[in-house]
Amino acid sequence: MEPKYKRILIKLSGEALAGDKGVGIDIPTVQSIAKEIAEVHQSGVEIAVVIGGGNLWRGEPAAAAGMDRVQADYTGMLGTVMNALVMADSLQHYGVDTRVQTAIPMQNVAESYIRGRALRHLEKSRIVIFGAGIGSPYFSTDTTAALRAAEIEADVILMAKNNVDGVYSADPKLDTTAVKYDQLTYLEVIQQGLQVMDSTASTLCMDNNISLVVFSLMEDGNIKRAVLGEPIGTVVSK
Predict the structure, then answer these.
(1) Could you tell me which of 82, 78, 93, 97 has the C-alpha nearest to residue 28?
(2) What pairing do the DSSP bridges indicate for beta strands 7-12 and 46-51?
(3) pLDDT at 162
(4) Contacts of 45 (CB under 8 A, 6+ apart)
(5) What are residue 234's DSSP bridge partners?
(6) pLDDT per residue over 113-138, tens digit each?
(7) What are phi and psi of 156, to 5 degrees?
(8) What pLDDT shows up at residue 151?
(9) Beta-carbon contacts of residue 209 (< 8 Å; ≥ 6 apart)
(10) How far is CA 154 from the centre of its chain?
C-alpha cells in the first residue's frame, strides 16, 4: 500500500519515552519507537516529530506548588530538548539522518528553529525533531505540534498515545459507558471539551485545516498503519 500522507508530524508524549517506568527515559523503549518511525521513513514519507516533556518535568504542578509559572515552563522546555536529543540518537542508530531544532537557541547541542532550514531537511529526507516548545511559556507541546505542522505544511498530525487508543466521550478507565469516536470535527472537540489536545492547539489545527489522527502507540506497527490511512484510532478534521 502507498502511504496516504507525504509529510507528517508525529506528536509523542514524554511519558511514551519512559516505558513501564512511568518517569525518566527508558532507552530500549525509545529505540523501539525510533525503529518504528525509521520503518515509516523508509517508505518515503517526510517526518517531523514533537515530543512532550512530562516524563521529566511538569510545569503546571510545579507552579501550583509555588514555583514561578514562567520558570516552570522554561524548565519543561529543557526537558523536551533532552527527549529530542535521545530520540535523535536512536533514529541515527537506525540509519536515519536526523536534525534537532530548538525554539530556544542552544547552538552547542542543536540547530535553532528556522522554518526554511526545517523544510530543506524534510525535502532531503531527514527527520526533524522540534524541541523547546515554541520558545515561550504558557504554551503546551500540543500547541507546538499544531504550530509546526502548519508552518511545515504537514498533511496530518499523528498523535500517538501511550494509554488510550483514540478519543472517548469520557475517560474509559473511569467510565465504563464511555464511547469511542471514529470521526470528530474540531468544533465538536472544542464544544464538548474532549481531552484530545488543548483548545489553542485544536483551534490552530481547525483554522489551518490540519487533520489529526489519535491512536495507541502501545501496539507495534500503529504508526505505519496510521500513515497508510488504515482505520485506527480517531480522526479529527475540520
Answers:
(1) 93
(2) parallel
(3) 82
(4) 3, 5, 6, 7, 8, 227
(5) 214
(6) 999 999 999 999 999 999 999 999 99
(7) -160, 155
(8) 98
(9) 237, 238
(10) 13
* Cβ–Cβ under 8 Å, residues 231 and 7: no
Instruction: Return phi, psi of residue 78, to 5°.
Output: -65, -35
| All cell numbers assigned to 36 | 518504528
Tens digits of residue pLDDT in 70-101:
999 999 999 999 999 999 999 999 999 999 99
In 10-164, where does DSSP find H-type helix? 27-41, 59-64, 69-93, 115-123, 141-151
Q: Are 98 and 90 in contact (CB under 8 A)?
A: no
Measured CA to CA in angstroms, residue 112 lies from 16, 52, 61, 91, 136 at distances of 25, 18, 29, 20, 14
CB 208 within 8 A of CB 154: no
- Which residues are within 8 A (CB) of 156 and not within 5 positions of it... i.e. 6 or more apart? 5, 8, 9, 149, 210, 211, 212, 213
Cell of 235: 480522526
C-alpha cell at 60: 503546571
Give the E-state strand segments of 117-221 in sequence order: 127-131, 156-161, 167-168, 180-181, 183-185, 211-216
**Residues whose CB is less than 8 angstroms from the CB of residue 14 and which lie 6 or more positions away in sequence, other chains included:** 51, 52, 53, 54, 55, 56, 79, 80, 83
